[in-house]
């Protein structure tokens, strides 16, 4: 029983790490512009798909990984420039619908290019499971957890230690004030879309060897990332990471101990309960309503 | 009389369409789907357009109605009308139970909560195989009996759906101008201001949520009996999104806007069949373009523009004389 539990925890942390990266992407954009980007899951799918195609063309894996991430980052920038910027000042509902439209559009493009087949990337470093006590872990899972941890740390340092990161935060705090002190607000917004697309794509290429990918793989990942961000308290990047890990654990334990069919329902049920009990998320500050 | 002029015009149009085009596929077959979608869009608009809230889980109530009708009639031999009532009771109860806690949330949090609720209901439909038939759905749902016979031709269904749609539109238009409607619009404007004016905002929001759930459930029962087959795919996250899109496409807050949005989005797949693989892509692009360039909605935007032109025409001669 205890061994099984350990196995569920290992699986949970692997899955949770991807949710954390997707959630971090949500939080980044929300932090800079108060927009929830429903196309975040499609970034995950695109990153993996492009990488798969590059590998298929005969290029080595590292090139494919970089190519997938780079292409997706460009898509993120295009989304901000072509869809979000022209609709500046729109209501929350309108921006939600715009990003939902973008996610449907990206899915349509993926369907046209790659069809309905399911693809996988080769494992980064072998498929021999490593034993940890009685549980086993795939080397790819270690890649997922390791890279996620490094990226989370990097994002943290970026906001805490660099001028650029602080400038992005300033835009989130007060756009006008940021502009007055000479920050190029528009550039910071574009940067936040680029960064969150990059994070999504990295998550995509990391899990593609174990969880596979297809044209509609972004939907559930996007929803889970959104849940992670909400669970952590929207606008708190580290909260999103914690939320993602928690969600991964809940799912894995729920699937193992209760029922695999209801694992998604369980995850959303817990989010509902958290929202009802603590409307600002577990790690969010209680919102102060402005009149 | 003038207040409901639009409604009478709409009613005449709905009544005349099948008379003018009795064998037109788009009127008699697609018309029923459009009608059911329009009922759903109008009900969602009560919640989103009037009260300014967001729901990404409206399809759940549509599904509860459909499955209540499906399960009770096929598995327990309950009379279709009684099954429909049971569905209404279930939807109303669920909506009332979750309304207060969920509707305290705002913006993205409310979006997440309603989305989560919709997904949970959908997963139950897939997983509770013994009751719902699981992912394969359930077949053999009997037709709806009315006045001693069963409704089974396209034209009869058109008539039934049309009557329900007209009633829904009429209710929606009347709510807009009523005391309750003004309270909802006050909530939309500013919840805090509404509260200081003595509006019980929690009750206003939860009442309209329950009402929109009841209408959706009724539409779900109609859908189940009309299709005679239901599966979880019809009541999932995507359909909830499509419903939101219908409402926003027409123009939030406008009843006829919601109907218009339902017509356009229900026809789009029929027309886009020509484009086959491009369908999803075009759907997404249309959605984005409208929201970016016409955020008040296609219907409301066009009506406003036309009114502007008419007003300018009326002013023009005066300006010429002066």
UniProtKB/TrEMBL annotation, chain A:
Record field: transmembrane: 6-28, 91-114, 142-159, 193-215, 235-258, 265-288
GO cellular component, one term: plasma membrane
Subcellular location: Cell inner membrane
Designated name of the protein: Amino acid/amide ABC transporter membrane protein 1 (HAAT family)
Major localization class: membrane
Keyword match ATP-binding: no
One Pfam family in the UniProt entry: BPD_transp_2
Species of provenance: Inmirania thermothiophila
Membrane topology of this protein: Multi-pass membrane protein
Entries under InterPro entries matching the protein: ABC_transp_permease, BCAA_transport_permease
A single BP term in Gene Ontology: amino acid transport
Molecular-function annotations in GO: transmembrane transporter activity
Keywords: Amino-acid transport, Cell membrane, Membrane, Transmembrane, Transmembrane helix, Transport
PANTHER family linked: ABC TRANSPORTER PERMEASE PROTEIN, BRANCHED-CHAIN AMINO ACID TRANSPORT SYSTEM PERMEASE PROTEIN LIVH
Family to which this protein belongs: Belongs to the binding-protein-dependent transport system permease family. LivHM subfamily.
TrEMBL record, chain B:
Taxonomy, superkingdom: Bacteria
GO molecular function: branched-chain amino acid transmembrane transporter activity
GO cellular component terms, A-Z: plasma membrane
Organism this protein belongs to: Inmirania thermothiophila
UniProt-annotated location(s): Cell inner membrane
Topology relative to the membrane: Multi-pass membrane protein
InterPro entries, alphabetized: ABC_transp_permease, LivM-like
Keyword Phosphoprotein on entry: no
Pfam family, one: BPD_transp_2
Name the record gives this protein: Amino acid/amide ABC transporter membrane protein 2 (HAAT family)
Predominant location: membrane
Transmembrane feature ranges: 32-52, 59-76, 82-102, 109-126, 157-176, 235-268, 280-303
UniProt keyword terms in alphabetical order: Cell membrane, Membrane, Transmembrane, Transmembrane helix
């Amino acid at each position: 029983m205890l061994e099984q539990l350990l196995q569920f925890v290992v699986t949970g942390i692997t899955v949770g790490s991807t949710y954390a990266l997707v959630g971090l992407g949500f939080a980044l954009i929300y932090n800079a512009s108060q927009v929830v980007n429903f196309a975040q899951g499609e970034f995950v799918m695109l990153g993996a798909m492009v990488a798969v195609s590059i590998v298929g063309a005969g290029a080595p894996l590292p090139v494919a990984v970089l190519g997938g991430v780079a292409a997706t980052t460009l898509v993120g920038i295009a989304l901000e420039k072509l869809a979000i910027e022209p609709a500046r000042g729109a209501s929350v509902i309108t921006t939600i619908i715009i990003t939902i439209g973008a996610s449907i559009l990206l899915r349509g493009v993926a369907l046209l290019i790659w069809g309905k087949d399911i693809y996988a990337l080769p494992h980064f470093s072998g498929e021999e499971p490593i034993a940890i006590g009685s549980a086993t872990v795939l080397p790819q899972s270690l890649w997922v957890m390791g890279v996620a941890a490094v990226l989370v740390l990097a994002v943290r340092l970026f906001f805490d230690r660099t001028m650029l990161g602080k400038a992005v935060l300033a835009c989130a705090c007060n756009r006008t004030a940021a502009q007055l002190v000479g920050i190029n607000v528009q550039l910071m917004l574009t940067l936040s879309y680029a960064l969150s697309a990059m994070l999504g794509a990295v998550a995509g290429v990391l899990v593609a060897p174990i969880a596979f990918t297809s044209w509609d793989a972004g939907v559930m990942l996007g929803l889970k990332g959104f849940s992670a961000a909400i669970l952590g308290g929207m606008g708190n990047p580290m909260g999103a990471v914690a939320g993602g890990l928690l969600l991964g654990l809940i799912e894995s334990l729920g699937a193992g101990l209760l029922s695999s069919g209801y694992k998604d329902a369980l995850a959303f049920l817990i989010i509902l309960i958290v929202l009802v009990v603590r409307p600002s998320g577990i790690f969010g500050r209680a919102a102060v309503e402005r009149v | 009389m003038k207040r409901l002029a639009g409604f009478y015009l709409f009613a005449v149009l709905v009544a005349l369409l099948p008379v003018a085009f009795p064998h037109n596929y788009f009127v008699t077959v697609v018309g029923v789907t459009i009608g059911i979608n329009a009922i759903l869009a109008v009900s969602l608009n009560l919640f989103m357009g009037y009260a300014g809230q967001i729901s990404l889980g409206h399809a759940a109530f549509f599904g509860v109605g459909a499955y209540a009708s499906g399960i009770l009639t096929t598995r327990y031999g309950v009379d279709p009308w009684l099954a429909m009532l049971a569905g209404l009771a279930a939807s109303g109860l669920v909506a009332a139970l979750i309304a207060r806690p969920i509707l305290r949330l705002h913006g993205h949090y409310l979006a997440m909560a309603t989305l989560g609720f919709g997904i949970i209901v959908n997963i139950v439909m897939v997983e509770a195989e013994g009751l719902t038939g699981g992912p394969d759905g359930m077949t053999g749902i009997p037709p709806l009996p009315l006045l001693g016979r069963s409704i089974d031709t396209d034209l009869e269904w058109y008539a039934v759906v049309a009557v329900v749609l007209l009633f829904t539109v009429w209710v929606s238009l009347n709510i807009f101008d009523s005391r309750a409607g003004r309270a909802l619009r006050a909530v939309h404007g500013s919840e805090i201001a509404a509260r200081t004016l003595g509006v019980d905002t929690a009750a206003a929001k939860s009442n309209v949520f329950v009402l929109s759930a009841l209408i959706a459930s009724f539409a779900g029962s109609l859908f189940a009996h009309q299709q005679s087959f239901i599966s979880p795919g019809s009541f999932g996250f995507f359909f909830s999104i499509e419903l939101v899109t219908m409402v926003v496409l027409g123009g939030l807050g406008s009843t006829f806007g919601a109907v218009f949005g339902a017509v356009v989005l229900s026809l789009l797949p029929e027309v886009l069949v020509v484009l086959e693989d491009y369908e999803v892509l075009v759907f997404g692009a249309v959605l984005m373009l409208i929201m970016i360039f016409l955020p008040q909605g296609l219907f409301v935007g066009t009506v406003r523009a036309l009114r502007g032109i008419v007003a300018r025409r009326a002013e023009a001669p005066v300006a010429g004389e002066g």
